Known about the structure:
Blueprint: H1 5-16, E1 20-26, E2 29-34, H2 39-48, E3 56-64, E4 74-82, E5 87-95, E6 101-103, H3 112-123, E7 126-128
Parallel strand pairs: 2-5, 6-7
Antiparallel strand pairs: 1-2, 3-4, 4-5
Amino acid sequence: MALENTLIQDKLTETFNNDVFNFQQERDIFTLEASADKITALILFLKNDTELRFNFLTDLCGIHYPDNDSERQFAIVYHLHNWYENKRLRIKVYLNGEKPEIKSISNIFLSANWMERETYDFFGINFIGHPQLKRILNMDEMMSFPMRKEFPMEDSGRTDKDDRFFGRTVSNS
Length: 173
C-alpha cells in the first residue's frame, strides 16, 4: 500500500492540531508548514511512526526573507525521505528575524549536525541544544553571515576589477 498524502496529513493534524498547516503537493513532494516550538516532536513522530517511517533526513537548509515581517524573516526547510515507500516530505518552519533560533534535531538525525552548522555559519540561525554549533566553512573571525540578504555582494575595496567588463558604465564626473 502506497503512503498517501491524506494519511500523512490526517496523522499529523490528529497529533499536532494547529501546529501543522498549509499542506500542499508541490510538484513531486508533499509540503507542510509547522510551528517552530514543535519541530523536534514532529520530526520524532515522523521518524518513529510505524506507518509514516520518514527515517532519513535528506537536507536541512535556511532561507532569509528580509521583506517579511519580523516573525517570518527566516525559514528552516527540512527534507525527509521514507525509503520503504519512496515518499518525500518537506517541512518549512518560519523563525523570528530578531532572534532566529530553533531546537536542534542532531540528536534525532546525526546527519543534521553538519547541516545545522552550515545553516548557522551562513544565516546565523541558532540551533538550541546543538553539541558543537560553530562555523564550519567560513573563518571563525567572520562577524557576518554571508547568505543573509543584507550581506554585501561585492567588496567595495577591490581595485583589481574594471566595471566596464561587468556591464556597468563608469561616469566621467
